[in-house]
Structures are given as C-alpha cells and as structure tokens.
Design a protein that fits this description.
- By secondary structure, the protein is α/β, with parallel strands linked by helices.
- Helices cover 37% and strands 21% of the residues.
- It contains nine helices and eleven strands.
- The protein has helices at residues 9-23, 40-44, 85-89, 96-112, 126-142, 154-164, 195-201, 217-226, 239-245; strands at 32-38, 60-66, 69-75, 81-84, 147-150, 169-173, 182-183, 186-190, 204-208, 230-234, 249-250.
- The strands form two sheets. It has a seven-stranded mixed sheet with strand order 7-8-6-5-9-10-11, with helices on both faces. Strands 3-2-1-4 form a four-stranded antiparallel sheet.
- Helix 6 (154-164) links the parallel strand 5 (147-150) and strand 6.
- Helix 5 (126-142) runs parallel beside helix 6.
C-alpha cells in the first residue's frame, strides 16, 4: 500500500493546482501560456563570473507568461509551448520537457495570484549576493555544521566553502564534466550514485529546485526524511511547488513575476 510520500511531489500538487486555477476562473478562460527558452543574458544578465550552468550551456531557463505574470524554470530540455492553461494541467509529467513547462507555468500562475514569490531569476551581480546570503543564513541558523550541496551552483559552492571550510562542504552533481573534479577545494561526487552518501555526511542539505524537473527530487527528499536531516531547496524553479507542498525554500534575490 502506497503512502502519501510515495507519490511524486509534482503529482501530489496537481489536484491543488487545478483547484486553484478553477477557483480563480482561469481554467475556462482564454489564457495563453507561452513558455520559451531564454538566452543566458535574458535569464540572468551579465554576472561577473562566467561559470554558471546556464552560461556554459548546460541549462536554459523557460519563461512562462500567464496574464502578464511570469514564472521561470531551469531545464536541460527547453521546449516552446503555446496553448491554454487547461492543456498544461493535463500534461503527463513523465519527461523533463513536460515537467519544465508545467513548473514554469505553475510559477507564473501562482505569481499572478499572489501565492508565490520570487518566481523570476535574479540578474547581473544578484546571483553572487544570493550565494553570500544563503551561506550566511545557514551559518546563522545552524552554526559550524557539515553542509551538503546537491547541484553544483558555483557561486553558492564557493560561498559555502568560504563560510564553512572545504572539509565541511560536500558537493554532488549530475553533469559528467563536473564529477570527480575539485571545485573550491571540494571533490564533486556523482549525484547518480552518491546522493545517500552526501546526505549521510551532511547535517544540512541545500539542493536545487531543478531536481523537480530532472526527476531526482523525490529520491533526495525521501533520503533527507529517512535520515532526518535539515534542508533548504534553493532557486526560482521550486517557487510554486514549495508554496503548495510546504517545502522550505530559500531564494534571497528572486524577483516577483
């Protein structure tokens, strides 16, 4: 017999999202949803550092627009879509592409209704400030702890190492070019095989909302719960899901859509 947590989080929030859309009378209206892949400059401007995943071509940002409000989602499978909100609600969430359009649209709708904040990515030097704020928040709340970072955001990784020291930061990533490399004094572990190891080695886990789109979120969440670890989900991608599912999220510089 399956439990509530056995159901993927995107499937768990589906009924609630549909209910919100229906009550807001958006389901049957002529709402157009446009999701388009943004260029790196459109998404995050021109930050000083050039090693963000979106800049080096690993990911793109989809932007969904619903009644003038915007929602972003990072994905490695960008795809354009234009249609009705009711069509998106009926998506089968079995591919990265569909999940990306669905989550970007969710973020745009909840931004429009005032139910989610920080649904649009910050730009220029804000990503560096975001990283500093995340590291400071963790240190102020938890003190000198072992921190696990799932998803190599270089700015966040560097600031965590600055704050906690390389011996106390653990990093994993799915991108083959990062795995096994030393970044900021820390070896990057293989996120395909060492998620449990990273969570076990850490007292606080910080992980990217992009895991919602690449189908790794639920495994990470199960392990965090099983090992009873503190956590934060970071970034704009998780804005709407965190609002509906009650996850703890941090996105210090995210912009309202």
């Amino acid at each position: 017999m399956s439990t509530h947590d056995d159901i993927p989080v995107l499937e768990r929030i589906k009924p609630r999202f549909r209910e919100i859309v229906t009550k807001a009378r958006l389901l049957d209206s002529s709402v157009a949803v446009l999701a388009k892949p943004l260029t790196p400059e459109e998404a995050i401007g021109t930050p000083g550092r050039r090693d963000f995943p979106i800049i080096i071509g690993k990911e793109r940002v989809l932007e969904a627009s619903v009644r003038g409000s915007r929602g972003h989602a990072f994905t490695d499978s960008p795809h354009e879509f234009e249609g009705r909100l009711s069509e998106v609600l009926d998506f089968e969430l079995t591919t990265n592409q569909n999940r990306a359009i669905y989550v970007a649209t969710l973020n745009a709708v909840l931004a429009h209704l005032g139910l989610a904040t920080g649904t649009v990515h910050c730009k220029d030097e804000d990503p560096e400030q975001c990283a500093r704020d995340i590291a400071s928040h963790l240190y102020d709340k938890y003190g000198e702890v072992e921190v696990g970072l799932i998803g190599l955001n270089p700015a966040i990784a560097e600031r965590l190492v600055d704050r906690f020291g390389p011996a106390h930061v653990h990093i994993s990533d799915l991108f083959a070019d990062n795995i096994g490399k030393i970044r900021f004094g820390v070896e990057v572990w293989d996120g395909n095989t060492r998620t449990e190891d990273l969570i076990e080695a850490s007292q606080v886990i910080v992980f990217t909302g992009t895991t919602l789109l690449n189908n790794t979120f639920d495994h990470i969440w199960h392990e965090i719960r099983r090992q009873n670890k503190a956590y934060l989900v970071y970034g704009v991608t998780a804005a709407g899901v965190a609002a509906l599912a009650g996850f703890e999220r941090i996105c210090p510089c995210g912009q309202d859509g």
